[in-house]
Amino acid sequence: MLIEIDFNSDEALYIQLRNQIIIGIATDRYREGDSLPSVRSLADNIGINMHTVNKAYNCLKQEGLISLDRRKGAVICIDVDKIRALKEMKEELKILLARGRCKNISVNEIHQLVDEIYTEYERKEKL
């Protein structure tokens, strides 16, 4: 598992880890049914506290991206509730778009960013 943590970032370590796993799922590096490393193993490999990994895994579980099982550990298990996912995404986008509007970012620039990011995921998916 390739995880890059920036220890100098203002972003919390568990958020960085969570985001890396989400991007891994989006780019098909991690697929439905894949097991993630154990909390202890991943913490040792990255050089962070086990509680930090556990917190990231719990966030991913709450977001419907993994399931936690005592025997199997953390497994990619994507929640197929698309309507709920769209509602959650809309709420997150409201804030992001409001911040963009405050910085005079145009609708066209937003669309370009979205297209660029999706193209990036598609390229990584084909690798």
Offer a few descriptive terms:
globular, DNA-binding transcription factor activity, two-stranded antiparallel ribbon, 2 domains, Arc Repressor Mutant, subunit A, about 5% strand, about 130 residues, mainly alpha
Describe the structure.
By secondary structure, this protein is mainly α. It has 2 domains: 13-76, Winged helix-like DNA-binding domain superfamily/Winged helix DNA-binding domain (Arc Repressor Mutant, subunit A, Orthogonal Bundle), CATH 1.10.10; 82-126, no CATH class. The protein contains 5 helices and 2 strands. A two-stranded antiparallel sheet has the order 1-2. A hairpin with a 3-residue loop joins strand 1 and strand 2 (73-76). The mean pLDDT is 91.
Summarize the structure.
Keywords: DNA-binding, Transcription, Transcription regulation. The chain is mainly α.
What would the principal axes of the Cα set say about the shape?
Answer: globular
Count of extended strands: 2
Straight-line distance between termini: 16 Å
Radius of gyration: 16 Å
Oligomer: single chain
Order of helices and strands: HHHEEHH
Strand content: 5-15%
Question: What's the tally of helices?
Answer: 5
GO molecular function: DNA binding; DNA-binding transcription factor activity
Protein name: DNA-binding transcriptional regulator YhcF, GntR family
Domain HTH gntR-type: 11-79
Keywords: DNA-binding, Transcription, Transcription regulation
